[in-house]
Amino acid sequence: MGMQGDFFQLLKEQGYQFGTGPLGPGGQTLPESEITRGTTILAVKYHDGVLIAGDRRATAGNMVMYDRTDKVLELDRYSVMAIAGVPATAYEMARVLEHSFKYYRRTQLQELSFEGKLRALSKLLKENVPAALAGTGAVAPLFGGYDVDQEAAKIYFYDILGAEFEGVEYAVSGSGSPMIRGILHYVNTWGQKPLNAQSEEEAVVQALRLLTSAAEFDSATGGINREANLYPVIKLITKNGVMTIPDDRLKSLFEEQVVRNV
Amino acid sequence: MYEEPYKWVEAVGNRRHYLDEQFRRGSPVVAASYADGIVLVTYARGTPKLYEIYDRLALGGMGHPADLERLRFTLLEMAHVEGFNRSPSDVTGSRLLKNGLAPIVKQAFEEIYKAPFIVKILLAELGVKAGRDTFLTMNYDGTFEELTGCAVLAASASAQSSMRAWLKQHGHFNQESLSQVLSICLLAWGVGSLAQREEEQAGTDSGRTASVSVTADVLPPIPERDVVLRHIRQAATDMSVECAILARTVSGPSKYRALKPNELPDLLSLDLNPAANG
To answer: What is the pLDDT of residue B3?
Structure first.
Protein backbone atom coordinates (compact mmCIF):
# COMPACT_ATOMS: atom_id res chain seq x y z
CA MET A 1 0.00 0.00 0.00
CA GLY A 2 3.00 2.25 0.48
CA MET A 3 3.23 2.70 -3.28
CA GLN A 4 -0.21 4.31 -3.25
CA GLY A 5 0.65 6.53 -0.30
CA ASP A 6 -2.34 5.32 1.72
CA PHE A 7 -1.32 5.67 5.35
CA PHE A 8 -4.66 4.58 6.77
CA GLN A 9 -4.46 1.30 4.83
CA LEU A 10 -0.87 0.83 6.03
CA LEU A 11 -2.03 1.26 9.63
CA LYS A 12 -4.81 -1.29 9.12
CA GLU A 13 -2.31 -3.79 7.70
CA GLN A 14 -0.33 -3.34 10.91
CA GLY A 15 -3.38 -4.28 12.97
CA TYR A 16 -4.61 -0.81 13.81
CA GLN A 17 -8.35 -0.51 14.39
CA PHE A 18 -9.95 2.88 14.17
CA GLY A 19 -12.88 3.73 16.46
CA THR A 20 -14.47 1.65 19.14
CA GLY A 21 -16.18 -0.74 16.71
CA PRO A 22 -19.77 -1.95 16.88
CA LEU A 23 -21.32 -2.80 20.20
CA GLY A 24 -23.07 -6.18 20.37
CA PRO A 25 -26.82 -6.70 20.67
CA GLY A 26 -27.95 -5.12 23.89
CA GLY A 27 -24.45 -3.68 24.17
CA GLN A 28 -23.83 -1.08 26.74
CA THR A 29 -23.49 2.57 25.97
CA LEU A 30 -21.99 5.10 28.31
CA PRO A 31 -24.39 7.41 30.12
CA GLU A 32 -24.56 10.86 28.51
CA SER A 33 -22.94 12.43 31.57
CA GLU A 34 -19.79 10.33 31.08
CA ILE A 35 -19.09 11.39 27.50
CA THR A 36 -17.05 14.51 26.89
CA ARG A 37 -18.70 16.71 24.25
CA GLY A 38 -20.30 20.13 23.69
CA THR A 39 -18.73 23.04 21.88
CA THR A 40 -19.12 25.78 19.29
CA ILE A 41 -16.99 25.82 16.17
CA LEU A 42 -17.40 27.98 13.11
CA ALA A 43 -15.83 28.60 9.73
CA VAL A 44 -16.48 31.77 7.73
CA LYS A 45 -15.14 33.00 4.42
CA TYR A 46 -13.66 36.49 4.43
CA HIS A 47 -11.88 38.59 1.85
CA ASP A 48 -8.52 36.79 1.92
CA GLY A 49 -9.58 33.23 2.73
CA VAL A 50 -11.27 31.27 5.49
CA LEU A 51 -11.45 31.97 9.23
CA ILE A 52 -11.97 28.93 11.41
CA ALA A 53 -12.52 29.20 15.15
CA GLY A 54 -13.59 27.30 18.24
CA ASP A 55 -14.18 27.84 21.94
CA ARG A 56 -11.94 26.14 24.48
CA ARG A 57 -14.39 24.27 26.76
CA ALA A 58 -14.80 20.49 27.07
CA THR A 59 -17.79 19.22 29.09
CA ALA A 60 -19.22 15.90 30.19
CA GLY A 61 -22.86 16.30 31.17
CA ASN A 62 -22.94 19.22 33.58
CA MET A 63 -19.26 18.91 34.37
CA VAL A 64 -16.69 21.24 32.84
CA MET A 65 -13.80 18.90 32.15
CA TYR A 66 -11.30 21.42 30.81
CA ASP A 67 -11.33 25.04 29.74
CA ARG A 68 -8.24 25.16 27.54
CA THR A 69 -9.04 22.59 24.89
CA ASP A 70 -7.75 23.23 21.37
CA LYS A 71 -10.50 22.20 18.96
CA VAL A 72 -9.07 23.88 15.87
CA LEU A 73 -6.39 21.53 14.60
CA GLU A 74 -3.90 22.25 11.86
CA LEU A 75 -3.63 19.18 9.61
CA ASP A 76 -1.05 20.59 7.25
CA ARG A 77 0.09 23.93 5.88
CA TYR A 78 -3.20 24.49 3.99
CA SER A 79 -5.88 22.66 5.95
CA VAL A 80 -7.53 22.84 9.33
CA MET A 81 -10.13 20.67 11.02
CA ALA A 82 -12.31 22.02 13.81
CA ILE A 83 -13.86 19.35 15.98
CA ALA A 84 -17.27 19.01 17.59
CA GLY A 85 -18.34 15.82 19.29
CA VAL A 86 -16.39 13.26 21.26
CA PRO A 87 -12.84 14.62 21.53
CA ALA A 88 -11.15 11.23 21.95
CA THR A 89 -12.36 10.15 18.49
CA ALA A 90 -11.90 13.59 16.94
CA TYR A 91 -8.27 13.90 18.07
CA GLU A 92 -7.57 10.42 16.75
CA MET A 93 -9.09 11.41 13.40
CA ALA A 94 -6.91 14.50 13.30
CA ARG A 95 -3.80 12.44 14.07
CA VAL A 96 -4.63 9.93 11.33
CA LEU A 97 -5.28 12.72 8.83
CA GLU A 98 -2.16 14.68 9.73
CA HIS A 99 -0.01 11.60 9.23
CA SER A 100 -1.91 10.58 6.09
CA PHE A 101 -1.30 13.94 4.39
CA LYS A 102 2.40 13.93 5.37
CA TYR A 103 2.84 10.32 4.28
CA TYR A 104 1.19 10.93 0.93
CA ARG A 105 3.32 14.01 0.25
CA ARG A 106 6.55 12.24 1.18
CA THR A 107 5.88 8.99 -0.64
CA GLN A 108 4.31 10.38 -3.81
CA LEU A 109 6.46 13.53 -3.91
CA GLN A 110 3.39 15.71 -4.44
CA GLU A 111 0.68 17.20 -2.24
CA LEU A 112 -2.57 15.30 -1.80
CA SER A 113 -5.28 17.16 -3.74
CA PHE A 114 -7.87 19.16 -1.86
CA GLU A 115 -10.55 16.64 -2.91
CA GLY A 116 -8.30 13.82 -1.68
CA LYS A 117 -8.07 15.45 1.74
CA LEU A 118 -11.85 15.82 1.94
CA ARG A 119 -12.27 12.20 0.92
CA ALA A 120 -9.85 11.07 3.62
CA LEU A 121 -11.94 12.77 6.31
CA SER A 122 -15.18 11.33 4.88
CA LYS A 123 -13.65 7.87 4.92
CA LEU A 124 -12.70 8.15 8.58
CA LEU A 125 -16.20 9.33 9.50
CA LYS A 126 -17.71 6.35 7.67
CA GLU A 127 -15.34 3.99 9.51
CA ASN A 128 -16.58 5.61 12.69
CA VAL A 129 -20.30 5.05 12.05
CA PRO A 130 -20.69 2.17 14.57
CA ALA A 131 -19.17 4.28 17.35
CA ALA A 132 -21.22 7.28 16.26
CA LEU A 133 -24.45 5.27 16.41
CA ALA A 134 -23.48 3.79 19.77
CA GLY A 135 -23.15 7.32 21.06
CA THR A 136 -19.55 6.91 22.15
CA GLY A 137 -17.76 8.42 19.18
CA ALA A 138 -19.99 10.89 17.32
CA VAL A 139 -17.94 13.60 15.62
CA ALA A 140 -19.27 16.39 13.37
CA PRO A 141 -16.23 18.33 12.19
CA LEU A 142 -15.66 21.37 10.01
CA PHE A 143 -12.91 21.34 7.40
CA GLY A 144 -11.40 24.55 6.13
CA GLY A 145 -8.63 24.71 3.59
CA TYR A 146 -7.01 26.47 0.69
CA ASP A 147 -7.28 24.66 -2.66
CA VAL A 148 -3.93 25.54 -4.21
CA ASP A 149 -4.93 24.21 -7.66
CA GLN A 150 -8.12 26.25 -7.85
CA GLU A 151 -6.67 29.17 -5.85
CA ALA A 152 -9.72 29.28 -3.59
CA ALA A 153 -10.38 28.91 0.13
CA LYS A 154 -13.18 26.45 0.89
CA ILE A 155 -15.31 25.28 3.82
CA TYR A 156 -16.89 21.85 4.28
CA PHE A 157 -19.01 20.42 7.07
CA TYR A 158 -20.01 16.85 7.84
CA ASP A 159 -22.72 14.98 9.65
CA ILE A 160 -21.75 12.22 12.07
CA LEU A 161 -22.24 9.54 9.39
CA GLY A 162 -19.71 11.10 7.03
CA ALA A 163 -21.92 12.98 4.59
CA GLU A 164 -19.97 15.89 3.16
CA PHE A 165 -21.51 19.31 2.49
CA GLU A 166 -19.85 22.41 1.14
CA GLY A 167 -20.61 25.38 3.33
CA VAL A 168 -20.42 28.04 0.68
CA GLU A 169 -20.01 31.11 2.88
CA TYR A 170 -20.03 29.71 6.40
CA ALA A 171 -20.54 26.55 8.44
CA VAL A 172 -21.08 25.89 12.14
CA SER A 173 -21.14 22.85 14.37
CA GLY A 174 -21.45 21.86 18.03
CA SER A 175 -24.03 22.36 20.75
CA GLY A 176 -23.76 26.15 20.61
CA SER A 177 -23.99 26.39 16.84
CA PRO A 178 -27.77 26.89 16.48
CA MET A 179 -27.37 30.15 18.44
CA ILE A 180 -24.99 31.63 15.86
CA ARG A 181 -26.18 30.05 12.63
CA GLY A 182 -29.09 32.46 12.43
CA ILE A 183 -26.80 35.42 13.14
CA LEU A 184 -24.48 34.42 10.29
CA HIS A 185 -27.41 34.02 7.91
CA TYR A 186 -28.71 37.45 8.89
CA VAL A 187 -25.32 39.18 8.55
CA ASN A 188 -24.56 37.54 5.22
CA THR A 189 -27.98 38.37 3.76
CA TRP A 190 -28.82 41.77 5.18
CA GLY A 191 -25.59 43.01 6.75
CA GLN A 192 -23.60 46.02 5.51
CA LYS A 193 -21.51 43.70 3.34
CA PRO A 194 -21.48 39.96 2.66
CA LEU A 195 -19.23 37.78 4.79
CA ASN A 196 -16.74 37.15 1.99
CA ALA A 197 -16.14 40.90 1.62
CA GLN A 198 -15.10 41.37 5.24
CA SER A 199 -11.54 42.31 6.11
CA GLU A 200 -9.39 40.08 8.30
CA GLU A 201 -10.00 42.30 11.34
CA GLU A 202 -13.76 42.41 10.76
CA ALA A 203 -13.84 38.62 10.44
CA VAL A 204 -11.84 38.09 13.65
CA VAL A 205 -13.98 40.54 15.65
CA GLN A 206 -17.12 38.86 14.29
CA ALA A 207 -15.81 35.42 15.37
CA LEU A 208 -15.13 36.72 18.90
CA ARG A 209 -18.65 38.19 19.06
CA LEU A 210 -20.23 34.97 17.73
CA LEU A 211 -18.42 32.73 20.23
CA THR A 212 -19.30 35.12 23.04
CA SER A 213 -22.96 34.95 21.94
CA ALA A 214 -22.87 31.14 21.81
CA ALA A 215 -21.38 31.01 25.32
CA GLU A 216 -24.16 33.29 26.54
CA PHE A 217 -26.82 30.67 25.71
CA ASP A 218 -24.97 27.34 25.68
CA SER A 219 -23.37 26.15 28.91
CA ALA A 220 -21.13 23.72 27.01
CA THR A 221 -19.46 26.59 25.13
CA GLY A 222 -16.71 28.38 26.97
CA GLY A 223 -16.65 32.14 26.75
CA ILE A 224 -13.76 34.53 26.99
CA ASN A 225 -12.12 34.84 30.40
CA ARG A 226 -9.91 37.91 30.44
CA GLU A 227 -8.71 37.37 34.01
CA ALA A 228 -7.39 33.94 33.05
CA ASN A 229 -6.15 35.23 29.68
CA LEU A 230 -8.39 32.63 28.04
CA TYR A 231 -9.34 33.33 24.42
CA PRO A 232 -10.77 31.14 21.65
CA VAL A 233 -8.55 29.56 19.03
CA ILE A 234 -8.87 31.45 15.73
CA LYS A 235 -6.95 30.45 12.61
CA LEU A 236 -6.86 32.03 9.16
CA ILE A 237 -6.26 30.02 5.99
CA THR A 238 -5.10 31.97 2.96
CA LYS A 239 -2.92 31.34 -0.09
CA ASN A 240 0.05 31.78 2.26
CA GLY A 241 -1.06 28.87 4.46
CA VAL A 242 -2.47 28.61 7.98
CA MET A 243 -1.89 31.36 10.54
CA THR A 244 -2.99 31.38 14.18
CA ILE A 245 -4.13 34.73 15.60
CA PRO A 246 -1.99 35.32 18.72
CA ASP A 247 -3.74 35.81 22.07
CA ASP A 248 -2.34 39.36 22.36
CA ARG A 249 -4.18 40.42 19.22
CA LEU A 250 -7.38 38.65 20.31
CA LYS A 251 -7.13 40.42 23.68
CA SER A 252 -6.79 43.89 22.15
CA LEU A 253 -9.55 43.31 19.57
CA PHE A 254 -11.82 41.91 22.29
CA GLU A 255 -11.23 44.89 24.55
CA GLU A 256 -11.65 47.43 21.76
CA GLN A 257 -14.57 46.01 19.82
CA VAL A 258 -16.34 43.27 21.76
CA VAL A 259 -16.27 43.86 25.49
CA ARG A 260 -18.33 47.06 25.54
CA ASN A 261 -21.29 45.16 24.16
CA VAL A 262 -21.20 42.23 26.60
CA MET B 1 27.61 -24.42 -5.49
CA TYR B 2 27.98 -22.26 -2.36
CA GLU B 3 27.51 -24.96 0.25
CA GLU B 4 31.17 -24.84 1.19
CA PRO B 5 32.14 -21.90 3.40
CA TYR B 6 35.10 -20.75 1.36
CA LYS B 7 32.97 -20.61 -1.78
CA TRP B 8 30.46 -18.47 0.06
CA VAL B 9 33.23 -16.07 1.10
CA GLU B 10 34.43 -15.99 -2.49
CA ALA B 11 30.91 -15.31 -3.74
CA VAL B 12 30.48 -12.43 -1.27
CA GLY B 13 33.84 -11.05 -2.41
CA ASN B 14 32.72 -11.21 -6.03
CA ARG B 15 29.50 -9.49 -5.08
CA ARG B 16 31.46 -6.68 -3.39
CA HIS B 17 33.53 -6.27 -6.54
CA TYR B 18 30.37 -6.18 -8.67
CA LEU B 19 28.71 -3.62 -6.42
CA ASP B 20 31.76 -1.33 -6.33
CA GLU B 21 31.68 -1.29 -10.12
CA GLN B 22 28.03 -0.20 -10.09
CA PHE B 23 28.82 2.94 -8.11
CA ARG B 24 31.84 4.07 -10.08
CA ARG B 25 29.95 6.61 -12.18
CA GLY B 26 27.50 7.63 -9.46
CA SER B 27 27.16 11.19 -8.26
CA PRO B 28 28.47 11.78 -4.70
CA VAL B 29 26.22 13.26 -2.00
CA VAL B 30 27.31 15.79 0.63
CA ALA B 31 25.50 16.86 3.81
CA ALA B 32 26.69 19.33 6.42
CA SER B 33 25.37 21.34 9.34
CA TYR B 34 25.12 25.10 9.18
CA ALA B 35 23.98 27.61 11.82
CA ASP B 36 20.22 27.08 11.25
CA GLY B 37 20.12 23.50 10.05
CA ILE B 38 21.49 20.98 7.60
CA VAL B 39 22.10 21.26 3.88
CA LEU B 40 22.21 18.26 1.51
CA VAL B 41 23.57 18.67 -1.97
CA THR B 42 24.42 16.66 -5.07
CA TYR B 43 24.39 16.93 -8.85
CA ALA B 44 21.76 14.82 -10.56
CA ARG B 45 20.73 13.83 -14.06
CA GLY B 46 16.95 13.96 -13.86
CA THR B 47 16.35 11.36 -11.15
CA PRO B 48 16.15 12.97 -7.71
CA LYS B 49 18.56 11.73 -5.05
CA LEU B 50 17.45 13.78 -2.03
CA TYR B 51 14.19 13.09 -0.21
CA GLU B 52 12.12 14.00 2.84
CA ILE B 53 11.66 11.06 5.23
CA TYR B 54 10.10 12.56 8.33
CA ASP B 55 9.68 15.88 10.15
CA ARG B 56 13.40 16.24 10.89
CA LEU B 57 14.88 13.54 8.67
CA ALA B 58 16.23 13.73 5.13
CA LEU B 59 17.66 11.05 2.86
CA GLY B 60 20.41 11.21 0.30
CA GLY B 61 21.21 8.19 -1.85
CA MET B 62 23.55 6.78 -4.46
CA GLY B 63 22.92 3.74 -6.59
CA HIS B 64 20.11 2.18 -8.55
CA PRO B 65 16.98 4.37 -8.50
CA ALA B 66 14.63 1.39 -8.08
CA ASP B 67 16.57 0.09 -5.04
CA LEU B 68 16.70 3.57 -3.56
CA GLU B 69 12.93 3.83 -3.97
CA ARG B 70 12.37 0.51 -2.19
CA LEU B 71 14.49 1.52 0.77
CA ARG B 72 12.96 5.01 0.80
CA PHE B 73 9.48 3.48 1.10
CA THR B 74 10.70 1.17 3.87
CA LEU B 75 12.06 4.16 5.78
CA LEU B 76 8.87 6.17 5.18
CA GLU B 77 6.65 3.34 6.40
CA MET B 78 8.71 2.71 9.51
CA ALA B 79 8.98 6.41 10.35
CA HIS B 80 5.30 7.24 9.92
CA VAL B 81 3.96 4.18 11.74
CA GLU B 82 6.35 4.86 14.63
CA GLY B 83 5.50 8.59 14.63
CA PHE B 84 1.78 7.76 14.72
CA ASN B 85 1.92 4.95 17.28
CA ARG B 86 4.33 6.71 19.61
CA SER B 87 5.29 10.30 18.88
CA PRO B 88 7.19 12.22 16.18
CA SER B 89 10.03 12.75 18.66
CA ASP B 90 10.48 8.96 18.89
CA VAL B 91 11.32 8.78 15.20
CA THR B 92 15.10 8.96 15.08
CA GLY B 93 17.48 8.30 12.23
CA SER B 94 19.59 6.10 14.43
CA ARG B 95 16.74 3.69 15.22
CA LEU B 96 15.44 3.65 11.66
CA LEU B 97 18.80 2.88 10.13
CA LYS B 98 20.43 0.66 12.73
CA ASN B 99 17.38 -1.40 13.74
CA GLY B 100 15.32 -1.11 10.59
CA LEU B 101 17.27 -0.71 7.38
CA ALA B 102 20.76 -2.08 8.06
CA PRO B 103 19.65 -5.67 8.84
CA ILE B 104 17.53 -5.77 5.65
CA VAL B 105 20.41 -4.51 3.50
CA LYS B 106 22.97 -6.82 5.15
CA GLN B 107 20.73 -9.84 4.63
CA ALA B 108 20.19 -8.98 0.97
CA PHE B 109 23.94 -8.51 0.52
CA GLU B 110 24.80 -11.89 2.02
CA GLU B 111 22.02 -13.93 0.42
CA ILE B 112 23.98 -14.69 -2.68
CA TYR B 113 21.11 -16.31 -4.56
CA LYS B 114 19.17 -13.04 -4.38
CA ALA B 115 19.86 -9.60 -5.76
CA PRO B 116 21.57 -7.15 -3.37
CA PHE B 117 20.52 -3.55 -2.94
CA ILE B 118 22.67 -1.40 -5.21
CA VAL B 119 22.43 1.55 -2.90
CA LYS B 120 24.31 3.69 -0.39
CA ILE B 121 22.30 5.76 2.06
CA LEU B 122 22.89 8.99 3.95
CA LEU B 123 20.38 10.01 6.63
CA ALA B 124 20.57 13.53 8.05
CA GLU B 125 18.73 14.31 11.27
CA LEU B 126 18.06 17.87 12.38
CA GLY B 127 18.68 18.42 16.09
CA VAL B 128 16.48 20.61 18.25
CA LYS B 129 19.45 22.92 18.76
CA ALA B 130 22.54 23.73 16.71
CA GLY B 131 25.29 21.22 17.44
CA ARG B 132 22.85 18.35 17.91
CA ASP B 133 22.47 17.41 14.26
CA THR B 134 23.48 13.85 13.42
CA PHE B 135 24.35 12.03 10.22
CA LEU B 136 24.28 8.33 9.42
CA THR B 137 25.74 6.66 6.38
CA MET B 138 25.18 3.08 5.31
CA ASN B 139 27.05 1.08 2.70
CA TYR B 140 25.54 -1.53 0.37
CA ASP B 141 26.59 -4.29 2.80
CA GLY B 142 24.66 -2.80 5.73
CA THR B 143 27.66 -1.35 7.56
CA PHE B 144 26.82 2.02 9.01
CA GLU B 145 28.57 4.93 10.60
CA GLU B 146 27.25 7.76 12.80
CA LEU B 147 28.82 11.19 12.32
CA THR B 148 28.49 14.81 13.38
CA GLY B 149 29.22 18.00 11.44
CA CYS B 150 29.15 16.52 7.96
CA ALA B 151 28.81 13.28 6.01
CA VAL B 152 29.39 12.13 2.46
CA LEU B 153 28.60 9.33 0.04
CA ALA B 154 30.91 8.47 -2.83
CA ALA B 155 31.81 5.48 -4.98
CA SER B 156 34.93 4.51 -3.02
CA ALA B 157 36.37 4.86 0.46
CA SER B 158 39.26 6.95 -0.83
CA ALA B 159 36.90 9.40 -2.61
CA GLN B 160 34.89 9.69 0.60
CA SER B 161 38.07 10.30 2.60
CA SER B 162 39.14 13.07 0.21
CA MET B 163 35.75 14.73 0.50
CA ARG B 164 35.77 14.56 4.28
CA ALA B 165 39.31 15.93 4.40
CA TRP B 166 38.20 18.85 2.21
CA LEU B 167 35.16 19.51 4.40
CA LYS B 168 37.18 19.41 7.61
CA GLN B 169 39.79 21.72 6.13
CA HIS B 170 37.30 24.33 4.91
CA GLY B 171 34.19 24.07 7.06
CA HIS B 172 33.33 25.36 10.53
CA PHE B 173 30.04 23.56 10.84
CA ASN B 174 27.19 24.94 12.97
CA GLN B 175 28.63 28.44 12.61
CA GLU B 176 28.36 29.20 8.92
CA SER B 177 25.46 30.58 6.92
CA LEU B 178 23.59 28.43 4.40
CA SER B 179 25.32 30.24 1.56
CA GLN B 180 28.81 29.62 2.98
CA VAL B 181 28.25 25.95 3.75
CA LEU B 182 26.54 25.31 0.41
CA SER B 183 29.60 26.49 -1.51
CA ILE B 184 31.90 24.33 0.65
CA CYS B 185 29.65 21.31 0.08
CA LEU B 186 29.53 21.79 -3.69
CA LEU B 187 33.32 21.99 -3.79
CA ALA B 188 33.47 18.81 -1.67
CA TRP B 189 31.17 17.19 -4.24
CA GLY B 190 33.67 18.26 -6.89
CA VAL B 191 36.55 16.73 -4.91
CA GLY B 192 34.69 13.42 -4.65
CA SER B 193 33.54 13.37 -8.25
CA LEU B 194 37.05 14.20 -9.47
CA ALA B 195 38.54 11.44 -7.30
CA GLN B 196 36.03 8.95 -8.71
CA ARG B 197 36.81 10.00 -12.27
CA GLU B 198 40.55 9.67 -11.70
CA GLU B 199 40.05 6.23 -10.15
CA GLU B 200 38.00 5.18 -13.12
CA GLN B 201 40.51 6.54 -15.61
CA ALA B 202 43.45 5.00 -13.80
CA GLY B 203 41.55 1.75 -13.62
CA THR B 204 42.77 1.38 -10.06
CA ASP B 205 41.03 -0.86 -7.64
CA SER B 206 41.64 1.49 -4.74
CA GLY B 207 37.97 1.68 -3.97
CA ARG B 208 36.93 -1.85 -4.78
CA THR B 209 36.98 -3.05 -1.23
CA ALA B 210 35.45 0.16 0.02
CA SER B 211 33.19 0.27 2.98
CA VAL B 212 31.99 3.39 4.70
CA SER B 213 33.55 2.21 7.92
CA VAL B 214 36.95 1.93 6.31
CA THR B 215 39.09 5.01 6.02
CA ALA B 216 41.89 5.01 3.51
CA ASP B 217 45.20 5.08 5.36
CA VAL B 218 46.90 7.30 2.83
CA LEU B 219 44.85 10.14 1.47
CA PRO B 220 45.29 11.01 -2.17
CA PRO B 221 46.41 14.63 -2.59
CA ILE B 222 43.48 17.04 -2.46
CA PRO B 223 43.24 18.92 -5.77
CA GLU B 224 43.55 22.69 -6.09
CA ARG B 225 40.36 24.75 -5.89
CA ASP B 226 40.69 25.82 -9.54
CA VAL B 227 40.89 22.20 -10.68
CA VAL B 228 37.81 21.32 -8.65
CA LEU B 229 35.91 24.33 -10.00
CA ARG B 230 36.76 23.40 -13.55
CA HIS B 231 35.50 19.87 -12.94
CA ILE B 232 32.24 21.15 -11.42
CA ARG B 233 31.62 23.46 -14.38
CA GLN B 234 32.17 20.55 -16.71
CA ALA B 235 29.78 18.36 -14.70
CA ALA B 236 27.17 21.12 -14.69
CA THR B 237 26.82 20.88 -18.46
CA ASP B 238 24.81 17.66 -18.25
CA MET B 239 23.75 17.61 -14.59
CA SER B 240 22.00 20.11 -12.34
CA VAL B 241 22.41 20.95 -8.67
CA GLU B 242 19.93 19.30 -6.34
CA CYS B 243 19.80 20.87 -2.93
CA ALA B 244 17.58 20.44 0.12
CA ILE B 245 17.64 21.80 3.64
CA LEU B 246 16.37 20.76 7.04
CA ALA B 247 16.01 24.11 8.74
CA ARG B 248 15.09 24.99 12.29
CA THR B 249 13.74 28.30 10.88
CA VAL B 250 11.05 26.54 8.77
CA SER B 251 7.69 26.94 10.57
CA GLY B 252 5.57 23.90 11.44
CA PRO B 253 6.69 20.38 12.31
CA SER B 254 8.09 19.45 8.85
CA LYS B 255 11.52 21.02 8.55
CA TYR B 256 12.48 19.71 5.11
CA ARG B 257 12.50 22.00 2.09
CA ALA B 258 13.89 21.34 -1.38
CA LEU B 259 15.54 24.49 -2.72
CA LYS B 260 14.19 25.62 -6.06
CA PRO B 261 16.65 26.24 -8.91
CA ASN B 262 15.85 29.95 -8.86
CA GLU B 263 16.91 30.20 -5.19
CA LEU B 264 20.42 28.91 -5.85
CA PRO B 265 21.99 31.88 -7.69
CA ASP B 266 21.51 34.07 -4.60
CA LEU B 267 23.14 31.45 -2.36
CA LEU B 268 26.12 30.35 -4.41
CA SER B 269 29.40 32.17 -4.64
CA LEU B 270 30.11 33.73 -8.04
CA ASP B 271 32.56 31.06 -9.22
CA LEU B 272 30.04 28.27 -8.46
CA ASN B 273 27.04 30.10 -9.79
CA PRO B 274 25.60 28.31 -12.83
CA ALA B 275 23.83 31.49 -13.91
CA ALA B 276 27.06 33.50 -13.81
CA ASN B 277 28.98 30.80 -15.64
CA GLY B 278 26.43 30.29 -18.38
So the answer is: 66
